[in-house]
Amino acid sequence: MNKKILVVDDEVSICELLKMELEFEGYEVVVCHDGLEALKAFETEEVDLILLDIMLPGMNGFEVCKKITAVSDVPVLMLTAKTDIVDKVLGLEFGADDYITKPFDMRELLARIKVLLRRSNIKNESEQKKYEEHILQNGDIEINVIGRTALVKGQEIHLTPKEFDLLELFMRSLGKVFTREDLVEMVWKDYEGVGASRTVDMHIQRIRKKIEDITNAKYIETVFGIGYKMRKY
Predict the structure, then answer these.
(1) Ordered strands of the 141-144 beta sheet
(2) Domain ranges in the chain?
(3) Which of 39, 45, 49, 144 makes a 20 to 30 Å CA pair with 201?
(4) The CATH number of 4-132 is which of 3.60.20.10, 2.70.180.10, 3.40.50.2300, 3.40.1160.10?
(5) Which of 230, 222, 74 is nearest to 141 (CA)?
(6) Which residues contact 11 (CB under 8 A, 6 or more apart)?
(7) Phi, psi of 54 (to 5 degrees)
(8) CATH class of the domain comprising 139-230
(9) Is the CB of residue 179 less than 8 Å from the CB of residue 227?
């Protein structure tokens, strides 16, 4: 899918030039000519980068940048006709990722855009990987192993520490059969005794009540004579 760039500048000729060059490079382009229009476009369009002029009618580029970066990590490249270092510093302090001074060389602008998009992709991939590492999902069940929270159909359920440990173990090993002895050793560690297996059964029963219809259990399956497993959905 082509990356989408929001171009915000009150000079129509500059917008037309940028739109032509960016589309030639394979980008989708959305154009706005004032700050308020830019905020509306940002809310309705899923853009990957914003080219934002400082001097805008309605709301200046600094304010637009501040509002956008407060709620989003989308990269912002400021366009400025001023060489004053104060404007450049202000833009960066308001959350802009980079700036370029008018008149600019188109090759330099395109290079800066590519760098910002590449950084954004790396960051998004890193965050997605981090998310996938601590979020486990199976059917309607989702658990966060860092926050130790569990959701069923989007609704949070309360699990005791051992119930959560058991559910996490099953979620990490979908389809694998665990004996009661396996579960005691992996969840209770040093717990032994004639009541250990019964303790496992009681915890499984409580988990089932919280994650599914116990009369028609589909997630945690009893493997008769052996133990339990969680079906993959």
Answers:
(1) 135-138, 141-144, 149-152, 155-157
(2) 4-132, 139-230
(3) 144
(4) 3.40.50.2300
(5) 230
(6) 53
(7) -80, -50
(8) mainly alpha
(9) yes
| ∠ CA 104-93-110, rounded to 5° | 25
**Helices 61-69 and 35-44 sit at what angle, rounded to 10 degrees?**
20
Extract the tokens encoding 7.
């171009």
Do the Cβ atoms of 52 and 79 come closer than 8 Å?
A: yes
Bridging pattern class, strands 227-230 and 178-179:
antiparallel
Q: Quote the Cα angle for 177-170-143, to 5°.
A: 165
